[in-house]
Each structure stands twice: as structure tokens, then as C-alpha cells.
């Protein structure tokens, strides 16, 4: 650890010091995460890197003292930051995260952390080597409904879970062209939407070993045979533990009869538990318990969960810059996504 890094760590241990954070990318997601940290008194917004004038101005309305630059490199050239929040296009996530971590900065990054498991593993390795906090915006973990489902699963309320149904259908598709370029995005609806559900299922079940994956990918209604193209519909079967099975379905632009269908349903020897969106909403979620033919409501909206991932990271950052091993869970999820894209049915894909 350099003297500058030691000084940062020491300063953060003082109650009066708030982390000085640079924000790379301040579109609506980046601005929202900034506002959460500012509103909760968890940071000083020192700098903004954003080439779009309108987005930069909206961010500076939230943080008038922040210095605006045009590039991520300008953030890296500073010597007064403790951390960066990254909300840039997916192709840049791994490279930018590694650059920041190598400079001794903590990182909070939008999902996906990388376009494939190799990139994700490189970021996590950099965080471990630098002993720096790494957070990823897997926001559905922080919904009250999913927290309750996970708590019930851990209590044994469903018995031994042997089947999981995962669904994320979005009646719309992304509005930015880079999403449709695999070299920039890493993939289509699986890495954009499916990542949330795969993460939730593995996290809720304490990351069981994943032993095999089979998948079918589609584009505009036809099976995808060109691996350079982006999928807009995917079906995958994920085998976990000794005999468990998950089924994932996700899509963009599906005629689903509603704006979105989002669900993670867990079936066990003693009952079932479900995390589901309500009324086609992207934001309202419920938790439900199943027993035979009986359904019991556990959690219902409203629930203001959108900024809780960055809030947790910000609170942790205020007490320590040090690495948290939870970040390594992203590698397990990324390996499953790689297997979905490769449909390689062999090998222990995501064991601890």
C-alpha cells in the first residue's frame, strides 16, 4: 500500500471525513446513484466525467462543487479521490474498474461488471490485490420482497429446494445502439436481464455448485446460430447441487401482455416461495409463500429499493476502503452466463 493509499484509509477512519467520489457516467442511473449518496450524507462529489453536456449539467445541479471533465482518464489523473462510481456502457466496466482499483480507489459499478467471466474475474482479482471495496449494482437483492424470500429459504420454510423458475420478460428493448453490438455489451437479454435472476437464485441458495447448463437463444423469432449476434429471447436450464434444476426465460420486446414479467419462484420439499413483480411493474414486487393449494402474502408494495445497493456500498465505504469478499460472487454468476452463451453442458461451472 502506498503512502497516499494509507493516508486515504486513515482519513476515512475519522468521523468527520466523507469519501471524495468521482462519478463516471451520469445518465439517469448514474445521477440517481449520486443523489442517493448525497441525500444520505455519504460522500463529497468531487468530480464528474461525462461527455454529454445535458447529463453533466443535471449532475452538477445535484453537486454544484463537482469538477466536470470529459473522460474517465481525467478522473484517474486526479490524486484527491477515494472512490469512483461507474455507470458507463458495459464494454468499459471492467477496464475502468481495474484502472481505478489499481490506483487504490474503491469502486461501485453498474452491472454487468464485465462482458464475460474472464473480465469479471480480472476485476475481482484487482480488488483483492488492492484490498479495495468493490460493489456491483445488483439492485434486486435489496428489495424487501427478495430479502424476505431469502430469509424464509434459509429458515427451511420450503424444505430442500429442488426447482427454481426464473423469468424476466421486458416488453421493450434498450434504446441505446451499443446494447445491440455484442463486442460492446457482451450479449443481449441474458446479460442485461437474466443476470439479475441468475444472481438472485444463486444468492438465495448460498451459491450451490452449478454442474451443467443447456440453452436456446433466439433473435427475432429464429434460433440464433451466429454467435456474433445479439439474442432477444433465451431459455436456459441450469443444473445445481446434486439434483436441483433452474429454468430461466428472459427476453426483450416480447408480446407478454404487460410491460414486464419478473419472477424467481423456488419450489422445495416443504413448500414454495416466490418473488414477483406486481401488475407488470418494473418497480413493485411482492413475496409469496405457497403450501399445497394455499397462497400467503409475505410482502407487498410499496418499497423504495432502487438505491439500496449503492447505499450499502456507501455506508461500508465510510468505515473502510477494504475489500469485501462478497464481490467474488459476481464471478460465479458470470460463469453461468458464459455457459448459457456457450451452452457447454460439462464441468462444475460455478461452485464455491
From TrEMBL:
<dbReference type="InterPro" id="IPR055170">
    <property type="entry name" value="GFO_IDH_MocA-like_dom"/>
</dbReference>
<keyword id="KW-0560">Oxidoreductase</keyword>
<protein>
    <submittedName>
        <fullName>Predicted dehydrogenase</fullName>
    </submittedName>
</protein>
<dbReference type="InterPro" id="IPR050463">
    <property type="entry name" value="Gfo/Idh/MocA_oxidrdct_glycsds"/>
</dbReference>
<dbReference type="GO" id="GO:0000166">
    <property type="term" value="F:nucleotide binding"/>
</dbReference>
<dbReference type="Pfam" id="PF01408">
    <property type="entry name" value="GFO_IDH_MocA"/>
</dbReference>
<dbReference type="InterPro" id="IPR000683">
    <property type="entry name" value="Gfo/Idh/MocA-like_OxRdtase_N"/>
</dbReference>
<dbReference type="GO" id="GO:0016491">
    <property type="term" value="F:oxidoreductase activity"/>
</dbReference>
<feature type="domain" description="Gfo/Idh/MocA-like oxidoreductase N-terminal">
    <location>
        <begin position="20"/>
        <end position="137"/>
    </location>
</feature>
<feature type="domain" description="GFO/IDH/MocA-like oxidoreductase">
    <location>
        <begin position="148"/>
        <end position="273"/>
    </location>
</feature>
<dbReference type="InterPro" id="IPR036291">
    <property type="entry name" value="NAD(P)-bd_dom_sf"/>
</dbReference>
<dbReference type="Pfam" id="PF22725">
    <property type="entry name" value="GFO_IDH_MocA_C3"/>
</dbReference>
Amino acid at each position: 500500500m502506498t503512502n497516499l493509499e494509507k493516508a486515504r484509509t486513515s482519513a476515512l477512519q475519522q468521523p468527520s471525513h466523507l469519501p471524495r467520489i468521482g462519478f463516471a457516467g451520469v445518465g439517469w442511473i448514474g445521477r440517481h446513484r449520486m443523489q442517493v449518496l448525497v441525500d444520505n450524507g455519504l460522500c463529497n462529489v468531487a468530480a464528474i466525467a461525462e461527455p454529454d453536456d445535458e447529463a453533466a449539467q443535471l449532475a452538477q445541479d445535484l453537486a454544484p462543487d463537482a469538477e466536470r471533465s470529459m473522460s474517465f482518464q481525467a478522473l484517474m489523473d486526479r490524486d484527491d479521490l477515494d472512490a469512483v462510481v461507474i455507470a458507463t456502457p458495459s464494454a468499459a466496466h471492467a477496464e475502468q474498474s481495474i484502472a481505478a482499483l489499481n490506483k487504490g480507489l474503491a469502486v461501485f459499478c453498474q452491472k454487468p461488471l464485465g462482458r464475460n467471466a474472464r473480465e469479471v474475474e480480472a476485476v475481482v482479482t484487482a480488488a483483492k490485490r488492492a484490498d479495495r471495496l468493490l460493489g456491483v449494482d445488483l439492485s434486486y437483492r435489496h428489495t424487501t420482497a427478495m430479502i424476505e424470500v431469502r430469509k424464509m429459504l434459509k429458515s427451511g420454510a420450503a424444505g430442500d429446494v429442488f426447482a427454481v423458475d426464473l423469468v424476466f420478460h421486458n416488453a421493450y428493448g434498450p434504446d441505446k445502439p451499443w446494447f445491440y453490438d455484442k463486442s460492446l455489451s457482451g450479449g443481449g437479454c441474458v446479460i442485461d436481464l437474466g443476470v439479475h435472476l441468475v444472481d438472485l437464485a444463486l444468492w438465495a441458495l448460498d451459491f450451490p455448485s452449478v454442474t451443467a447448463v443447456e440453452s436456446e437463444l433466439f433473435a427475432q423469432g429464429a434460433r440464433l446460430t451466429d454467435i456474433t449476434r445479439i439474442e432477444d429471447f433465451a431459455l436456459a436450464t441450469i443444473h445445481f447441487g446434486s439434483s436441483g434444476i433452474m429454468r430461466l426465460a428472459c427476453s426483450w420486446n416480447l408480446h407478454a401482455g404487460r410491460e414486464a414479467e419478473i419472477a424467481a419462484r423456488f419450489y422445495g420439499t416443504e413448500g414454495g416461495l416466490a418473488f414477483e413483480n406486481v401488475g407488470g411493474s418494473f418497480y413493485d414486487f411482492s413475496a409469496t409463500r405457497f403450501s399445497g393449494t394455499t397462497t400467503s402474502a409475505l410482502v407487498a408494495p410499496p418499497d423504495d429499493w432502487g438505491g439500496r445497493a449503492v447505499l450499502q456500498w456507501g455506508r461500508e465505504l465510510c468505515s473502510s476502503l477494504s475489500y469485501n469478499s462478497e464481490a467474488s460472487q459476481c464471478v460465479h454468476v458470470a460463469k453461468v452466463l458464459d455457459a448459457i452463451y456457450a451452452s457447454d453442458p460439462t464441468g462444475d461451472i460455478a461452485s464455491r
